[in-house]
Design a protein that fits this description.
Length: 152
Amino acid sequence: MNGARIAGGLLTAAVAATIAGCGASAQPQAAPAAAPVSVKPSESLAPLLEKALPNVPGKSFTSAIVSFPPGASAMPHRHGDAFVYAYVLEGAVRSRLEGEPDHTYHQGENWTEPPGAHHVATENTSTTEPAKLLVVFVATTGEKLKVDDPPR
């Protein structure tokens, strides 16, 4: 009987040591990695020329290349009091001013935007090819040429 009690005690001690040993040597679990957040690409603006208009005090002429990577879109925005002219150099761009329907402009096409217009959508229509615009602003000298809408 003593032998059975000793064997049972050893077995209990061995099981307890095994359980305790497993807990001590286990590595802490890393938190699951967050899923990558997909950020839609946006446009970039490369200024070409800025020149004060000698016959219109307080106004400047600014030209720039606006590049849209594949699938890129611009945030809704305004161009202050600027008169805007855009010419599609490459690709196709879908554009919409507030209160007007969408319009897709292809290479060689152009449009204008009146001062104060709210540009609610501008995007490259292709998910595989870039699009580029030549954009000309006639604006108050020193005024920001593009102001994105505040985040909602």
